[in-house]
Write a structure and sequence with these properties.
heterodimer; A: 169 residues; mainly alpha; Arc Repressor Mutant, subunit A; 2 domains; 9 helices; 73% helix; B: 143 residues; 4 helices; rod-shaped
Amino acid sequence: MNQSDFLKVVLPFKDKVFRLAKRLLVSTEEAEDATQELYFKLWKSKEKIADYQNVEAFAMTMTKNYCYDRLKSKQASNLTLAHSNYLEKDTALDKKVEHQDSVSLVHQLIEKLPDQQKIIIQLRDIEEYDLEEICKMVDMKPIAVRVALSRARKTIREELIKKHNYGIC
Amino acid sequence: MESVNIEKLIEKYLEGNTSLQEETILKNYFNKGIVAPNLQEYQPLFTYYVTAKNERYSKTIELSPKKIKRNYTWLSIAASIALLVSVFIGKQQYELYQQKQEAERLFAELSKGLRLISTNLKKGEQAVATLYTLENTVNKIVK
């Protein structure tokens, strides 16, 4: 497997790796470093990659584990809780301003979830992987994934309704 | 009518039982704009999902690791040390070479001088030899 073959296989999901890393590590810089490091690791294990049927799932699992390690290690202890500067392309400007607060509210609500639920929400509701793939990535049974997903979604919903009723949205 | 369906889908969604297609329907509904008043609290959620997917990794990915970059610094240090050592040794070698040249020159001069002395000595010897023969013949004649 040479370099261009390798890049053809792994580059399409670099944004997904980055977004998952950012979901877990919070800061953009940390997530960028993590992505870089993960791609270097993938490159080192390129001989193995040729044998994998689903490189993307393998990469996502690696990302998850790597971020867990980072979170555990002391290096990550001085993480800043910098907030995101995500892009909104599709909404018109006035709407954008109107939604900005409530949308970043969702971001914060997801941030408060336990790590496992964060990952599952990220993989399902944002990256739109099917259940089978998620099970492989997080190494969980389908029922457990569904339960975690349901719990996370309900938690977010409850918080949203609370805020909505207070008239913050 | 549509909002009733959406409500049902949301129930299913919260239980974690929606398919990807059904979730796409939800996302489309909440991102199109007109949302039924009783569903408005869900709008930020589904707009967030769509916007969150737009975030990109903007840097280029390098396959050569940072570790190799650090090796370059070590390499440059090693190279400069090698340069210093080679200049130092080179100077020593050059001095040695110069001394050798000087010695050879001296040796050549010295041997030239000695050769001169030896040839001149030979001349003297020959002269003395003729003197001997002269003396011998003179002695023979005198006797």
